Structures are given as structure tokens and as C-alpha cells.
Amino acid sequence: MRLWLRPRMWGLHAVAVIVAVFCLVGGSWQLGVYDQRQEHERADRREVPTVPLAEVWSAGEPFLETMNHRPVTVTGTFGTADEQRWVSGREQDGRDGYWLLTPLVVSPGRAVLVVRGFAEDNGALPEPPTGEHTLRVVLEPGEPVAAETPADPRVVASVRVPALVNELPYALFPGFGISTTPEVAGGLTLVDVPAPEVSWTVGLRNLAYAAQWWAFAAFAVFMWWRMGRDLVAAERARREQAAGTSAAGRPSRLASSHLRDR
Fold first, then answer.
1. In angstroms, rounded to a whole number, what is the distance separating the alpha carbons of residues 57 and 174?
2. How far, in Å, are 56, 107, 169 from residue 72 at the CA level?
3. pLDDT of 94-145, one tens digit each?
4. Residues 57, 61, 66, 68: what is their CA dihedral angle, to the nearest 10 degrees?
């Protein structure tokens, strides 16, 4: 350890620290740029114009990736109270609860499922608003099959459209909408709309640059260790050689005594 900390090694240590810190900062900066690119992409997707549902989707079309988190307006009349379902396993603001799912009939025999709001308990199903309504919803794809099936027929574990088609007298859109219109919430809390999903490949070049900078930092540490080890080994060998030479050139105690006697 003394050999590693001798003054001659301070320059190597200082250079290694400067290079490693510079590379780590460069990598962190590139990672921050990557995060900004991701956030800007989410903001761009949030700011897409709100258009009528009929302009982007019809009941017979599949749910496309471009529809995910898309805000639209939809006009129709809500189904009856017994056609509604509580969706279990939901969480909002740290509270566990349920979504209230109601079919909105947009044309004869065709309906889109709408999440009207969030509640902490699944009591009596509230009556849907009567008459025709135009509401703003954010489109979401149908959910996969849940692991558990609730015993209560009024409760479903996921918004799985193929299963609900068999229970409701409508041709359903293969997705659903989360309402952002308070007037149709029936006193429930509006559901927080999920943030738009952005592919991790957006800003991939900056992520690669960050990885490169961190690889340079690791290489700098390796080179510091390798050069330091070689310098310490050379210094140790020099000292051992000097000690051996000194011992070889010094006369033994017995030989010194004999010379004095003579």
C-alpha cells in the first residue's frame, strides 16, 4: 500500500480520477438527453388533436397501435344499469378499488365500453345518465385474461372485450375508452389516464453514447490498475535488488573481526 501511495504515483491517480469522473459525467449527461427525448415524445403524443371516434375507428376494425391513448369524442346513449360491470384490481392515488364500466351505444346494435369512474367499493351499480351524451374519452386496448375470476357476476377482473361480447347485446369495439368527462361520472372519481407509451428505442443513439462513456470510464480504471501494478512491481523489484546488492557488498561480522586481529 505504501508503494501505491508514494508521491511518484500521485500523478497517475489524479489522471485516473479526472478521466473516470469525466466519462461518468458524460454518460450521465447522455442518459439525461435520452430521458428528455422520451419525455418529449410522450408530450407529442399527448398533444394529438381530439377528433370524433368515427374518424379513427369503427366497430369492425382492430385496435391499432396508433389508437393507443388517443383522445376522441364519442356520442351515444348509455346502456342500462344491469349491463354495467365493476372492474376489480384497480388502484388510484394509493387506494384500491374498482372501475365502473358502462357500454355506450353509438349506433343501433354497436357500442363502445367506457370507464366512467373509480370507486373504492363495488356496491350497487349507479344508474347511467339518460339521453344522448357527447363525451371525451381516451382510447385503450382490451386487457388480457385475468388470473382470477370474481364470483360476483357484476364484477370482472379485466376489460376483456371478447368475454364481454358474450354477456352484452351489442357488437363491441375491440377496445375501450376512459372517460375524462365529469358530467357522466355519476359522482365517481374520474380515472387517471395512463401516460402514452413510448418505445425505448426513441433516443437510442443517446443511450448508446451513455453506455460508451461508461465503458470508457471502466477502461480508464482498468488502465490505472494495470499501470499502477506494473509501476509498483518494478519499484518493489528495484528495492529488493538494492537490498540484495547492499547485503552482498557488506563484509560479514566474522571477517571483520579477523581483519582487525591481523
1. 10
2. 9, 17, 24
3. 999 999 999 999 999 999 999 999 999 988 888 999 999 999 999 999 898 8
4. 80
Residues 6 or more apart in contact with residue 27 via CB below 8 angstroms: 209, 210, 211, 212, 213, 214, 217
Is 179's pLDDT higher than 50?
yes
Residue at 119: amino acid letter:
A
- Hey, CA dihedral for 224, 230, 233, 234, is it positive or negative? negative
Cell of 173: 369495439
Closest CA to 243 of 235, 255, 231: 235
Q: d(Cα 155, Cα 143) in Å, to the nearest integer?
A: 15
Buried b vs exposed e over 218-232: b needs ≥16 C-beta within 10 Å? eebeeebeeebeebb
Residue with cell 355506450: 104
- Amino acid in the structure at residue 49: P
Say how many CA atoms lie within 13 Å of 75 toward its Cβ: 6
| Helix (DSSP H) and strand (DSSP E) numbers for the chain | 5, 8
Cα–Cα distance for residue pair 90/187, rounded to 1 Å: 18
